[in-house]
Design goal:
alpha/beta; homodimer; 13 strands; Ado/ade_deaminase (chains A, B); TIM Barrel; metal-binding (chains A, B); 22 helices; four-stranded parallel β-sheet; about 525 residues; globular
């Protein structure tokens, strides 16, 4: 053997050893899968030049895995995205239900109820249109409108205007009714110049994220809309090839609005509606297995406040044993309360569950941060010691060799949200994202969308796309294994899980078949 | 033991296990070190609020570890930076000698020689002042000036103007002579709006980097300046507390300019001058041990071209056995030739060294990329298999568990260049940098500055600062260990290395003593 041959042989072995823990290395692939994988790699290579190597108007520097909000329109037009759209995705394990339906649909919903009103901190003008603070909420039927147009020079700041009227009378100079729609929905989501220029760091972008969430929550939390909202979410989700969902629902507010604009609809009713909508959807659709709820509360309360919620969570679990599948704390880990400060109630809650024969596993957010040794980063230690079944984000897990080993050995999957991480400025683009580190260390991963209403990444196709184009190692096969892992690490019981896996494998085979035998659009 | 106590105990053990491989965990610290470390942590915590938590004019979003070019002025004024400036840094192991001296000094040098001329692609005006292409070079004494001012409306594009004259006659509207200085030096470095707005991705910023390097090289490569240049580099380096240097010198051009502007000064003369300057500097200064050279060539040539350089490298090693300490290939790994395509000559070169009893270790750039499985990323496999003694950058090493293990076990240190990585847009800011992953995996690291003339991070203090403020785990102790590692993984022989370590430990103790007993500015 020549020295060069020796080098080449060692090189192959070294790469193999380096990738030994990868999910796409551990599981044997079928010829059909290999063929499809190859085809997808070919399309990716082509489009790296034909799509990402050319100039696009208004996109200063296109590249595969670029900033999502700037690149979304390009992505949507690629052949590769067309392929991914058709792929069955498995389970969606990390999504905040309150932030899933597109702002346009949400606004359309609100406009159909006369109880909805809007107000703004000033007269809306060309100058302040993007900085003014606005609020939308349902009010009682007998509530007298306080003003008629937000753009009238004499509009008294913070006066409520009926939503429809505010839209109709929105100044033509600001685009009239269509301008109103763009204005309101723009405040409910994040645009490129906010994410990548004015709020281009993890601290500031959270401000924008919170204000977008606050603006939409009063529409989502209107009982007649809540019902339609859940239906819409399920439809959008199933349309993207997602077969099963574990949605985080924020139970921090005690009540939502009833049809009359009164804040009096309790948690039990939220979940009754959820159950009704999901049951009906399941009956109608063969392509969707189920949707469950992870009870979440914002990590901003004191220990006593948390205990009230744990009590409530237990009561909901007893009322809806098949729906509630976990408990989590949400909100910016960098600024809010770390798990470390909630240890006593959280430990007690586990013991109580044992005594009462109930199981509400922890599925904690942890390590959604660039910090190293900060409280957000250290949440990872506590989440794991508290027995978390999965980790929400775990962005900083890659810094922790021991914790990665534990996740791998004990099967603690990470709910990785690529586009969310990028828009919230934990990573500047997908090629910088640490996902390959997790994969190469054999940490189980379920790709997730997090808050698609705000990030505009509805479904899982966009996140899958960004992951696929940002790595030469990852291929369609890898995405298939990640989809399988999303099922494996779901909270379904054995029989349901097997059923879901079967559903998925069926659709996967069909998808691969269509892909390689050449649906005209794909070959 | 209560469940909470149990959790707390497990938590301590888990964090310890997670950090077991860290260099600051493996080596025992002295009370003086602990005291100093604590003091520095206190200053850091204070300044996180008093400096980084307040608004600064012209800095839209300050935070610790922020974009260096925007934050540099803030950093320079901090107490913490004052401390780090005084710290002995050990060895500087990754620096491209041709890009070390500040553009201002370089221009000042050039202005002292009448042979220097400048030309530009168009008449320089307010409109094109930042986009025009310019060139500087020495010309023969009898060369007739082709024009007298770059800003005259009648300036014929690409005509040579004597540098001094171009400066004196630079249009007042563009700032006159001072405007000329700003203009030229601006083209030799990278400014915030280039790095963070117009060229804000790894592909485009390399264009700017290359043009900055090309503009200054004709000044650096003028033999009378080369001598002063090296002296200046050594002075700046020693002033920052660096005790020893292994500088990469780019031997891609065969000749540099002589005093008469003729391109006829061969490599042997470059190194003769280097030796003379270093010897003189060593004699004069007790605070500096030595400077050596890593022979480098740009990875843009064919195999034959590389072989010519290997031949030349061997000849230089025989002529300057104490100076040449390694061989490397440089330039953008994403676009230029990967090690894989140079395997045959590189393997043969090693065999030849063995036969001839010469040792020129490989110290390869590898993995300076965000790519995953790309040719730049895969350079890591070949570098390691070719027996590289250290790795230049290795930015993508963190994706490779097996390669990290090899580096740890075989003592292959990474030359990590935090500010370079950030300005070249591999990471958007220091908190996103993968350095903590390397540290937590026990990979030896030597922090380095790379190209301080372009990045404006002269010495090592700025890089040390950015590393220190971007992590709560890393402290002054860690920086001390990194400095020690820079000595341990230098190419010095046993006796020299021991001498250097002794020098460093002496200065370290002195530094700690002054720090804790309270130089007024530090306590």
């Amino acid at each position: 053997m020549t020295p060069l041959e020796e080098h080449t042989q060692k090189r192959v072995a070294l790469i193999e050893a380096d990738r030994a823990l990868r999910v796409d290395n551990a599981r044997v692939s079928r010829p059909l899968e290999d063929h499809a994988d190859e085809l997808v790699r070919r399309i990716r290579t082509e489009e790296a030049t034909t799509v990402w190597g050319v100039e696009h108007e208004g996109v200063p520097h296109p590249f595969p895995g670029m900033e999502f909000l700037t690149g979304k329109d390009i992505i949507s037009r690629t052949r590769l995205f067309g392929v991914i759209r058709k792929m069955p995705k498995g389970a969606l394990l990390h999504v905040h239900l309150d932030l899933t339906v597109s702002p346009h649909t949400l606004l359309r919903f609100a406009l159909q109820y006369s109880s909805f009103h809007i107000r703004s901190s000033e007269v809306v003008t060309c100058l302040n249109v993007s900085s003014v603070v606005l609020e939308i909420r349902p009010l009682a039927p007998d509530f007298p409108a306080e003003a008629s147009s937000l753009t009238d020079a004499c509009y008294p700041p913070m006066s409520w205007v009926p939503l429809c009227q505010a839209r109709e009378l929105f100044n033509e100079a600001l685009g009239g009714p269509e301008g109103f729609d763009r204005w309101v929905t723009g405040h409910m989501s994040i645009n490129p110049s906010t994410a990548y220029v004015t709020h281009n760091d993890n601290i500031r972008i959270w401000d924008k994220f919170r204000s977008a969430a606050m603006l939409s929550i009063n529409i989502v939390h209107y009982a007649p809309i809540w019902r339609r909202y859940i239906r819409q979410f399920l439809e959008d989700t199933a349309a993207d090839g997602i077969l099963y969902v574990e949605a985080r629902v924020n139970f921090s507010p005690r009540y939502m609005f009833d049809a009359d604009g009164k804040m009096n609809v309790p948690h039990i009713e939220w979940l009754r509606i959820f159950r009704q909508v999901v049951e009906k959807f399941k009956q109608e659709r063969e392509d969707f297995l189920d949707a469950k709820v992870i009870y979440t509360v914002i990590r901003d309360r004191d220990v006593e406040g948390l205990e009230d919620h744990l009590e409530d969570c237990l009561a909901m679990k007893k009322e809806f044993p098949d729906i509630i599948v976990g408990f989590d704390l949400v909100g910016d880990e960098n600024t809010l309360v770390p798990l470390k400060d909630y240890l006593e109630p959280l430990i007690r809650f586990k013991e109580r569950q044992k005594r009462e024969g109930v199981s509400i596993p922890y599925i904690f957010h942890a390590g959604e941060t660039c910090g190293d040794g900060t409280k957000a980063d250290e949440n990872l230690y506590d989440a794991i010691l508290l027995g978390t079944k999965r980790i929400g984000h775990g962005f900083s897990l890659v810094k922790h060799p021991k914790l990665m080993q534990i996740c791998r050995e004990e099967g603690i999957a990470l709910e990785v949200c690529p586009i969310s991480n990028e828009i919230l400025r934990l990573t500047a683009s997908m090629p910088m994202h640490p996902l390959p580190i997790l994969l190469n260390n054999g940490v189980p991963v379920a790709l997730s969308s997090d808050d698609p209403a705000v990030f505009q990444n509805m479904g899982l196709s966009y996140d899958f796309y960004q992951v696929l184009v940002a790595s030469e190692v990852t291929g369609l096969l890898t995405l298939g294994h990640l989809a399988r892992d999303s099922i494996t690490y779901s909270m379904l019981d054995g029989a349901e899980k097997a059923k879901l896996m079967h559903m998925w494998e069926d659709r996967w085979s069909k998808f691969l078949g269509e892909l390689v035998t050449g649906e005209p659009c794909l070959n």
